[in-house]
């Protein structure tokens, strides 16, 4: 049983895992499987980190991670298949509306061509040129270019002129899946038996002596090693003090990332014009085009209207209802006010303001390509970093975080069980 009862987790474990998100869960499972004792310390009163499923009107809705990207290499897909989890393929055909009317074949072909041109340019130029803003190598892509730039900016977490050209194409993004019941709920199942202390924020890690002393508001734990999975944006705020200070290379790598922003405005819209389940919708030709719209999630009346970083930043200066009004205004512009009569906004997420995430994921700006790999080196053979930010092929994702949690734990096992 996962627990927030401190008596169920050891005070002097072999390894302390900081954070019970995807990376922390993966790390803890791997360590326990190798016979090591573990305490997982989680600041929030729940597990899952940036993956959490909430029930809305009886339907499970993911408020953070939802897609299982890159199916062939995603460890959460592999594990899901082994466990017989209810995985389903993400459809590859999406909706296309031009000024509220179904787009033609020619419209779709133009959009597909523009995406292909952008992908080719970024992949090829990343091999040929020095690192620079990914946006700089984009060719003229015709009228569909704006849409392509917005979509890539959304999935990157920042506009493409703030994203490393060398980092961008390393991401695998094809063969996506979903899991019925939600990705957050799936991670919670995977954490089922772990020794987790909830509501236990780590304030400091002292690695001046043997092993590590991990300080929390509820006392100090002594361990041989620690795996730190707190998000980069949280570490940048010095939420965890390291004594002695981290080596300059590691500290610079942590501070090299920028904050990726991607927020869901969750719509309940039974009468939406979108048919089928789980389709992305492109709405083009308007004054404002939503960069991301995932429709009829698992066939329910729920949809995600996604906010990218520029939109979220604009809305930050306004009142709490601004994201809901914005989503309604954009959809009304495309489909008319009558069409959105039965649309209600259930909630808008605010991961960028959450003290335990401060961003949706970590972004590598131009010139900082090396930071993901730099952080893979252990500190004093006692502290390992893990989490989505370290993954090369699955950055920014729950699958990448899991992969990195397993990697870090594997290295800890090797280090702690090696003959001295
Ligand atoms: C809106 C949104 C949509 C997304 N969509 C997708 C998607 O569709 N597919 C996908 O794969 N990914 C998606 N992502 C990204 C995905 O959620 C993350 O990449 C992944 O969940 C990160 O896992 P992690 O273990 O690295 O970090 P986290 O899940 O953030 O886990 C770190 C944990 O550390 C805890 N913590 C932080 N500081 C401390 C401390 N001092 N002491 C103790 N605990 C601490 C946090 O509370 C957290 O639980 C999305 C993210 C957001 C926000």
Description:
The protein is of the alpha/beta class and 420 residues long. It folds into two domains: 6-54 and 181-258 and 359-417, FAD/NAD(P)-binding domain (3-Layer(bba) Sandwich), CATH 3.50.50; 91-171 and 262-353, Polyamine Oxidase, Chain A, domain 2. It has eleven helices and 22 strands. The chain has helices at residues 22-33, 75-83, 105-128, 145-156, 183-190, 232-235, 248-256, 309-316, 322-335, 371-374, 398-417; strands at residues 15-18, 38-41, 53-56, 59-62, 87-89, 95-98, 101-102, 177-179, 196-197, 202-206, 212-216, 219-223, 225-228, 241-243, 258-260, 263-268, 279-284, 292-295, 302-307, 344-348, 361-363, 383-385. The strands form six sheets. Strands 7-6-17-18-19-16-20 form a seven-stranded mixed β-sheet. Strand 11 and strand 12 (219-223) form a beta hairpin. Helix 1 runs parallel beside helix 11 (398-417) and helix 3 (105-128) crosses helix 4. The longest helix has 24 residues, at 105-128. The radius of gyration is 22 Å and the shape is globular. The two termini are 34 Å apart. 49% of the residues are buried. The model has no long low-confidence stretch (mean pLDDT 95). Flavin-adenine dinucleotide binds next to helix 1, strand 16 and helix 11. Residues 18-24, 41-44, 49-51, 64-67, 69, 201-202, 229-231, 234, 239-240, 262-264, 349, 351, 356-357, 360-361, 387-388, 396-399, 401 line the site of flavin-adenine dinucleotide (FAD). It catalyses: L-tryptophan + O2 = indole-3-acetamide + CO2 + H2O. Belongs to the tryptophan 2-monooxygenase family.
């Amino acid at each position: 049983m996962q627990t927030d009862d401190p008596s169920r987790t050891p005070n002097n474990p072999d390894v302390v895992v900081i954070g019970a998100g995807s990376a922390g869960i993966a790390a803890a499972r791997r360590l326990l499987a190798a016979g090591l004792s573990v305490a997982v310390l989680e600041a929030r009163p729940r597990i899952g980190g940036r993956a959490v499923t909430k029930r809305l009107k009886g339907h499970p809705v993911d408020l953070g991670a939802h897609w299982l990207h890159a199916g062939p290499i995603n460890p959460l897909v592999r594990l899901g298949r082994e466990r017989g989890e209810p995985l389903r393929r993400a459809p590859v055909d999406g909706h296309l509306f031009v000024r509220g009317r179904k787009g033609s074949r020619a419209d779709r072909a133009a959009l597909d061509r523009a995406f292909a041109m952008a992908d080719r340019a970024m992949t090829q130029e990343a091999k040929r040129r020095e690192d620079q803003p990914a946006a700089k190598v984009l060719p003229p892509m015709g009228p569909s270019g704006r849409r392509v730039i917005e979509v890539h900016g959304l999935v990157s977490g920042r506009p493409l002129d703030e994203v490393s050209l060398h980092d961008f194409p390393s991401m695998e993004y094809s063969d996506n899946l979903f899991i019925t019941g939600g990705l957050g709920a799936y991670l919670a199942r995977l954490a089922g038996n772990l020794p987790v202390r909830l509501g236990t924020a780590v304030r400091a890690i002292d690695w001046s002596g043997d092993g590590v002393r991990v300080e929390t508001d509820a006392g100090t734990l002594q361990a041989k090693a620690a795996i730190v999975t707190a998000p980069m944006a949280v570490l940048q705020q010095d939420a965890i003090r390291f004594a002695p200070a981290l080596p300059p290379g590691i500290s610079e790598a942590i501070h090299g990332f920028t904050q990726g922003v991607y927020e869901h405005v969750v719509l309940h819209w039974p009468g939406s014009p979108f048919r089928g389940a789980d389709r992305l919708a492109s709405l083009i030709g308007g004054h404002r085009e939503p960069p991301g719209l995932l429709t009829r999630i698992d066939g329910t009346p729920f949809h995600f209207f996604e906010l990218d970083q520029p939109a979220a930043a604009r809305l930050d200066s306004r009142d709490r209802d601004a994201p809901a009004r914005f989503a309604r205004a954009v959809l009304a512009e495309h489909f008319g006010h009558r069409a959105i009569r039965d649309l209600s906004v259930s909630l808008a997420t605010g991961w960028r303001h959450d003290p335990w995430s401060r961003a949706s994921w970590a972004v590598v700006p131009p010139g900082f390509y090396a930071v993901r790999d730099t952080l893979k080196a252990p500190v004093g053979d006692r502290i390992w970093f893990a989490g989505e930010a370290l993954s090369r092929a699955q950055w920014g994702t729950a699958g990448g975080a899991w992969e990195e949690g397993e990697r870090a734990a594997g290295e800890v096992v090797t280090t702690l069980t090696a003959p001295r």
